[in-house]
Design a protein that fits this description.
Chain B: It is an enzyme of class 1 (oxidoreductase). The complex is a heterodimer. Chain A is an alpha/beta fold. Chain A folds into 3 domains: 211 residues, NADH-ubiquinone oxidoreductase 51kDa subunit (Rossmann fold, 3-Layer(aba) Sandwich); 84 residues, Roll (Ubiquitin-like (UB roll)); 89 residues, NADH-ubiquinone oxidoreductase 51kDa subunit, iron-sulphur binding domain (de novo design (two linked rop proteins), Up-down Bundle), CATH 1.20.1440. Chain A has 18 helices and 9 strands. In chain A, strand 5 and strand 6 form a beta hairpin. Chain B is elongated and about 50 Å long. Chain B contains 7 helices and 4 strands; from the N terminus they run H-H-H-H-E-H-H-E-E-E-H. Chain B folds into 2 domains: 60 residues, Arc Repressor Mutant, subunit A (Orthogonal Bundle); 81 residues, Glutaredoxin. Chains A and B meet through strand 3, strand 5, strand 9 and helix 14 of A and helix 2 and helix 5 of B. The complex binds flavin mononucleotide (FMN) and FE2/S2 (inorganic) cluster (FES). FE2/S2 (inorganic) cluster binds next to helix 5 of chain B.
Chain lengths: 422, 156
């Protein structure tokens, strides 16, 4: 069994209780840090660990923290991104529901390192149970002196609040998240200014994903070298791969970065259901390009997946067998983006609608030969033309399936219908 | 509009933020949990509580799909339609529910018991297909499980 970091406690009985967490070594990293480690040294430790953001973009966590000014007139904030809405991604929910104290300890260590005294956990609105678990864990930690004033007898103080979203994918984007937290429509902001200098309520702000923060306690306790020895040189540590779709054992698998797609599908997730051939997989959530059976030996780390033409993103790993129609799959995701576009930028708002219309007619046998170039044309008119990366995400399923499966699109058009329709 | 307990919760909420506006989403959640949806009166009420204009509160509330604009059934059945669930048969679950309840997506049964809507990925794709009914997730569904769930809720 490979070493587990963020999922180390999830199978323990009563894992969400403080008592269990403490019995398994919980809050020891916080004790150690408050006694022995200066905030700046803590940032340095996280830098040396090589930890990169698990929310999607893979930005080095320690480096992000170091952008926050030491002195600030306005309060500094941490936003823990628990919006988890990228289709195919379902790992943060496990950490929240099964090991909330691990997340709270990670948040507290992060705030100590950066000099933050207020943190918000922005959790997607649908996760009512998760929000309740977090509220309870916060109350427990407060009573035990791990949160609030004079944490563990030190002069460090911190409040953590749970803030529920209300059903909008875009609020996972960090600037939309801050808008939403401020009581506004979740419409992304223009960058710069970057959150590290001007973020929530105008103060310097760090936004990190749940899984990113859940790595911090072990990095503090076991050291950056220990962490950096796991995974690959540039993608250190583990990753929780969320395997869904046509596999025998869908679920979450925490494995060292750099495991191959083949091992993930065939060893861990039990292979394709019914022993069927693999047709396509999406390695990093719905916003990254599709890959095919040709890419089974690609190592799942940031660099290798990028080299293969996709992205590791959120590690939402969606598997499709040979019975899956690629036009249908692209249409399904295009509907998602059309529905979730915040509507601020015209190319995104109009482009997603237009692509849906064209995909719909191709899927239903009314497509025209020119439609393929039309789709690619719409894609190139969205790319880079929007305020936030949502636009580029939205065109990706369409563009990558047209490129990888052009003949399948053509057979829809020539045969006037979907060859996969029952 | 809010119960005394609800007002107490509201007062606690305000302490979490440096300004009142930031309490807007939690306050809307609170009102919806008591009233069932975000009515015109609810918008005026929340605007008053937070010193915001009703137009502003409406423009924010309408951005978020979880705030219902009209009265919903006692049980709001939310069927996930996104790719991972679709690969595992969510379409069949949806068609079955439509047939059993005799309503289309977006409708409520005449007795006011069930509303049927589709939603996007619920972050539970490993146990697809998934539906959410009010606050609770129902995972790894098949038609028999759907039958049992509906039977149980009908009795309540
Ligand atoms: C459209 C969009 C949706 C996003 N959704 C999420 C999300 O649900 N959860 C998340 O952690 N990051 C999400 N992100 C990434 C965040 O903007 C941000 O990069 C991340 O939270 C930073 O944390 P990290 O450095 O720890 O990964 C999203 C980005 C975009 C553009
Ligand atoms: S697609 Fe249904 S839960 Fe993710």
């Amino acid at each position: 069994m490979a070493e587990r970091i963020v999922f180390k406690n999830v199978e323990a009985p009563n894992s969400r209780e403080l008592e269990t967490y403490r019995a398994r070594g919980g809050y020891r990293a916080l004790e150690k840090a408050l006694k022995e480690i200066k905030p700046d040294d803590l940032i340095d430790i996280v830098k040396r660990s090589g930890l990169r953001g698990r929310g999607g973009a893979g930005f080095p966590a320690g480096l992000k923290w170091s952008f926050v000014p030491k002195e600030s007139k306005l309060p500094k904030y941490l936003c823990c991104n628990a919006d988890e809405s990228e289709p195919g991604t379902f790992k943060d929910r496990v950490i929240i529901e099964k090991d909330p104290h691990l997340l709270l300890e990670g948040i507290t260590l992060t705030c100590y390192a950066i000099g933050i005294h207020t943190a918000y956990i922005y959790i997607r609105g649908e996760m009512v149970f998760g929000a309740r678990v977090l509220e309870q864990a916060i109350a427990e930690a407060q009573r035990a002196g791990f949160l609030g004033n004079n944490i563990l007898g030190s002069d460090f103080h911190l409040e953590i609040y749970v803030h529920r979203g209300a059903g909008a994918y875009i609020c996972g984007e960090e600037t939309a998240l801050m808008e939403s937290l401020e009581g506004k429509r979740g419409e992304p902001r223009v960058k710069p200014p970057f959150p590290a200098t001007r973020g929530l309520f105008g103060g310097p702000t760090v936004i990190n994903n749940v899984e990113t923060l859940a790595n911090i306690p072990d990095i503090v306790l076991k050291g950056p070298e220990w962490f950096a020895a796991i995974g690959t040189e540039k993608s250190t540590g583990t990753r929780v791969f969320c395997v869904s779709g046509h596999v025998n054992r869908p679920g979450t698998y925490e494995l060292p970065m750099g495991v191959t797609a083949r091992d993930l599908i065939y060893e861990h997730a039990g292979g394709i259901r019914g022993g069927r051939p693999l047709k396509a997989f999406i390695p990093g959530g719905s916003s990254v390009p599709f890959l095919t059976a040709e890419h089974l030996d690609v190592k799942l780390d940031f660099e290798s997946v990028a080299q293969a033409g996709s992205l590791l993103g959120s590690a939402g790993f969606i598997v499709m067998d040979d019975t899956t129609c690629m036009v249908w799959a692209a249409l399904n995701l295009c509907h998602f983006y059309e529905h979730e576009s915040c509507g601020q930028c015209t190319p995104c708002r109009e482009g997603t609608r237009w692509m849906s219309v064209v995909l719909e007619r191709i899927e239903h046998g009314r497509g025209r030969q020119q439609d393929l170039d039309l789709l690619l044309d719409v894609c190139s008119n969205i790319r880079g033309q929007t305020l936030c990366p949502f636009g580029d995400a939205a065109l990706t399923p369409v563009e990558s399936t047209v490129k990888l499966f052009r003949s399948e699109y053509e057979s829809h058009i020539q045969g006037k219908g979907c060859p996969f329709a029952p | 509009m809010l119960s005394p307990a609800g007002m107490e919760k509201f007062q606690q909420l305000l302490k979490r933020y440096p300004n009142k506006q930031a309490a807007l989403l939690p306050t809307l959640h609170l009102v919806q949990s008591e009233v069932g949806y975000v009515s015109k009166e609810a918008i005026d009420f929340v605007a008053g509580l937070l010193a915001l204009s009703p137009t502003y509160v409406h423009s924010v509330a309408s951005f978020y799909t979880m705030f219902y604009k009209e009265k919903m059934g006692k049980y709001v059945i939310q069927v996930c339609r996104t790719l991972p669930c679709a690969l595992c048969g969510s379409r069949k679950i949806l068609e079955y529910l439509k047939g059993k309840l005799g309503i289309e997506v977006g409708e409520t049964t005449p007795d006011g018991k069930f509303s049927l809507v589709t939603v996007e990925c619920l972050a539970s794709c490993g146990t697809a297909p998934v539906i959410q009914i009010n606050d609770d997730y129902y995972e790894g569904l098949n038609l028999e499980k759907v039958d049992r769930i509906l039977e149980q809720l009908s009795r309540e």
